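A further point concerns the way the authors explain their paired sequence and structure data. Each protein is reduced to its one-letter sequence and a matching series of backbone shape codes. An entry of this sort, consisting of the sequence and the corresponding backbone structure tokens, reads as follows:
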Amino acid sequence: MKNTAFLNLAVVACLGLFLWWAEGALDGYKIRVLNLIAVNIILALSLNLIYGFTGMFSLGHAGFMAIGAYVCSILIMTPAQKEMLFILQEAYPWVQNCHAPFVVAVIAGGLVAALFGFVIGFPLLRLGDDYLGIATLGFAEIIRIVANNIPRVTNGALGFKGIPDHANLWWTYGWCLLTLYFVVRILNSNTGSVFKAIRDDETAAKAMGINVFNMKLLSFTQGAFFAGVGGALLGSLVNTIDPKMFLFTMTFNVLMIVVTGGLGSITGSIMAGVGITVLLEWLRFVENPITIGDWTMAGIPGMRMVVFSLVLILVILFRREGIMGMRELTWAGIARFMKRGRV
């Protein structure tokens, strides 16, 4: 146990050194990609907690992200900024005058998203499987439409621009490590074992005396909190948000990471979060004009998502369990692998 804690601290220290180096050595675009990796890992872990570890097929992550992004943005923008932004209609006084530090704003975004998760969880979590997915997808679309139609709170279709860019490498990776720590702790506890029991066989879990509905609601609320945190960080990172940003494709991107990494694998979510974020950025070249000799092909907007969707289909066809399946990369497993390699 002591050795494991020491190795974990050593990895965190190495990550800190890398971030310190990256902050001074890399250009703005590469730093943006590193930040996106951290945010995507947070979102993947939160969805994996709901879907991969508790077995609830949810498609509402874009809604929780929107809530977190709007709450955080309203809190970190100054009253003067908001006065200039709200041109469709004047903001409510409580929207206009509220202001808070970034850490408070991120936590508030997560808490409000968790509150919405708790409220909608009561009716929706009584549904099962595909019905739950459709219902949560509807929730995400409702949040987007409401954001479009309450201009005194969200500035309507114009959204927010010039959001303070507090989400640097230290904030995004700090929240990423905190999310990872929380998810690992809860999954290694009795509560985590109950989540997995519900995922594996809900009927058997009920027969063992588990209050399945309450535990599902707990998992759903916790996942919503970290989805709100991810949305809050994303809003500050991109400096602008509007209702069109939180379409179903945003949930689909997170779902791709979870499925590719492996449902029920924390390690898989981290590996896929890194790989898919980098791959999506690298594939931007297929949307640009391509010239080979005298032949030129015009760029096709959106083609990178077509290519990536084909890659995802191949993963599902030939490795349905994802990169890691339900396995985890542990220090004990690495030690056994190295021992076999020496033998």
Observations:
- Residues 10-250 form one domain.
- The mean pLDDT is 86.
- The two ends are 25 Å apart (CA to CA).
- DSSP finds 16 helices and four strands in the chain.
